[in-house]
Write a structure and sequence with these properties.
alpha+beta; Cyclic Phosphodiesterase, Chain: A
Length: 172
């Protein structure tokens, strides 16, 4: 195991939304590749050496932020999987503040435009992904959930290890 694992930041979901997406992930993600619970990734790879600084910044942001509305707009194709497209101007704004703070340390992936989504299937055949996309899309109506905070994780080469959870002020 890497002694200096990178940090991943995710938006924490309200219980109902988390359960909904986690159940779908459990049903449709290949079991041998499903190391994780449902999540909405904010950053894929912050340097471990920035962990204390990230925790301090996130604590400051969370103490001044109420839970954030997330609109689960539509299902979208990942080619070999399916994800829920998430609309949330406030979450995009919070992420931008973190990105600006750590810009020099960000990987190209994390410097790219933020595309909030929750993956429920990946690493399957295009036909299997297309079938799930069609099934989920046929009965989908946009609905709203909430981001309740930000979680920090260590990436362990597949699985993740929770480092800390930082709840928004109204979720404390």
């Amino acid at each position: 195991m890497n002694d200096d694992p990178p940090i991943i930041l995710t938006a924490m979901l309200d219980d109902e939304s988390f359960t909904f997406f986690d159940n779908l992930r459990h049903q449709h993600f290949p079991a041998e590749r499903n190391f994780l619970r449902a999540h909405l990734t904010l950053f894929h790879d912050l340097p471990n050496k920035k962990g204390d600084e990230a925790a301090t910044l996130i604590n400051l942001l969370c103490r001044d932020t109420n839970s954030i509305e997330l609109v689960f707009e539509k299902w979208r194709s990942l080619g070999r999987g399916v994800a829920m497209k998430v609309i949330s101007p406030k979450l995009v704004s919070i992420r931008r503040l973190i990105a600006d703070h750590f810009f020099a340390d960000l990987t190209p992936q994390d410097k790219n435009k933020f595309d909030p989504h929750i993956t429920v299937q990946n690493k399957v055949s295009p036909d299997e992904a297309s079938a799930l996309l069609a099934a989920l899309s046929s009965k989908h109506q946009p609905w709203a959930g909430r981001a309740t905070g930000i979680a920090m994780w260590h990436y362990l080469g597949g699985p993740w290890q929770l480092v800390s959870e930082h709840r928004f002020v109204d979720e404390s």
